[in-house]
Every structure is written in C-alpha cells, then in structure tokens.
Amino acid sequence: MLATLDIGGTKVAAALTQGGRVLERRQLPMVSQREDLTPLLASLLQGWTGIQKIGVATTGYVQQGRVFSVNHDIIGFWNGLPLQEILRGIMDVPVVMLNDAQAAAWGEYLARQQDGNGPADLMFVTLSTGIGGGVVLNHRLRTGQSGLAGHIGHIPSHFRSCDGESQCGCGQTGCLELIASGTGLARQASALFGEACDSRRLFSLASQLPGAEHLIQHAAEAVAAMLAGQHLALDLQEIVIGGSVGLAPGMLERIQHAFRRIPVPAPPRISAARCGADAGLAGIMHWAGASS
Asked: Which of 23, 76, 142, 195 has an alpha carbon 20 to 30 Å from 202's alpha carbon atom?
C-alpha cells in the first residue's frame, strides 16, 4: 500500500493506492499556520493501514526532506520545513518527495507513453494558485540539483500586470506568476472591478465584461510568450497545461491561439492535462512506487 499526498497552496489531496490503482481519495483545504499542518496531514492519513511508503507532491522545492517556498506569499512557513520528518512522525514509513509540478509532469508523461508514441521531451505547466512547471527531457524527469527545475512562474515576463503590481513574493519583479496565476488574476480583477473577485468568478464574467476577457487574454498571451522561450531553450515536443486556471473554460484555447501567433520554429503540441486536477497525485504515485 502507498499513501500519496498532493500539497498545494489552497488544498491538500490524499490517495490510498495499491498496484497503481487509487482505492480511496480525500481532500481538505490547506492550512495557513504551521501548527495546523501536522493535524491536517494526520487526519488525511487516519485509518489507512498497511501503508509501506508515503509519496508527497508539494508546492515549493524539496531539498533533503525539507520544503522551501519560492513565493513566500503562498505558504509563508515553507521555509525549510522538515516535512519528511513530520510525516515520519505520523506514520513510521519511508517518505518520497517531489515538487508538485514535477510530479504532475511525470504523471502526464507516463499517461502519454501509454499511446505507444509519447513524447520524449515534455513540459507540464500548472496555472493555479501560483504557476509551476516540470520538465521531462529524453524520457527523464529533470528535478535539478536544488529541486528548482521547472519553476517558470518566477521567470520575469516582458508583459506587465494590468494593475501595475510588479513585486513578486519571491523577491523579483515582473514574474509571470503576478500576471497569470489564480492569485494574480484575482488581484488584478479586484483592482479592476473595485471589489473582491477570484479567478473562478473572473472566468464566469469573461463573456459579459470586456475587462474580464482582457485580463484573461493578457494572461494567456504572457503564458504563451514564456512557453515560446522555453521551447526555444529545450526543443519540446509537447507542452501540457493544467491547474485550476489552466483548465478553466477557454484558457487552453486562448494560450494555443496566442502561441500560434509567435513565430517559433517546429512548434510543440500544446494540450490539456489528461490527469486533470490529480496529475500530481498520479505522478507521485508512480514515482514513489518505482523508487527503492
């Protein structure tokens, strides 16, 4: 038996798996305080017996069992938190950890290999609370020496946010995450409309309000430009879009359309995540299951 966790900025999903099959799935909102994390994880794992290993896909980057934030505005206590040790304290079994977008990239890569002609070079991009990514090159997941590979949300964009905000929670200015993440879209929409507006409501307003459509289109163009740069650097065969914003109605089509207008050679296929919101769980299930 393998227990898997997918820890994001707004939710934590858990799955009990055996032989690559999900037996049970649970989900709870992510907590905002460090002291609430252990009880949350314990409640998600409660009652599951026969667990031999825990696989964790987590936002942030992983080093030697600890997790760190790139954007400290998303999870403030992700500052070297000994997550592996915490989980070992809950359930005394081995714990395997990956960045959540890296895990999702692996899950999406494996899903496409079942076709018999899946890509050797794939990038997964999650547009969600934040923006993350994962890269598979020559059939191998690239995590990087420091666990940072794929963090495209924190590469500065030549696009600018529509509300003039330039300072990212990572400490840099002009990051893509400021423009096209769920948090970034909500911030810009709230400034535009003069009242609180989350990304879900923004998409629902797109067909009614030109301003809402402009924000979403602007985000799609910023994402497309970043992906074009990544393709020129890595020569990708396929780019997979996931996350709550990436899978929102019409977002993929907007990104595809914007990408087609960029004159890059040998353009890759841009597709939707096949594993949906559970790409991270799927990836860490296979990654942890295969690790010794």
From this structure: 76
Report pLDDT digits (tens) over 166-201. 999 999 999 999 999 999 999 999 999 999 999 999
* β-strand pairing of 53-58 with 95-99: parallel
Rounded to whole angstroms, the Cα distance separating 261 from 54 reads 44
Cα separation, 109 vs 117, in Å, equals: 11
pTM: 0.93
CA distances from 73 to 79, 154, 165, 171, 172 (A): 12, 13, 14, 10, 13
Helix axes 83-90, 37-45, angle to 10 degrees: 50
Tokens found for residue 53: 């290993």
Beta carbons of 85 and 203 less than 8 angstroms apart: no
Q: What is the DSSP annotation of 91-111?
A: S-S-EEEEEHHHHHHHHHHHH
What 3-state DSSP class applies to 171? coil
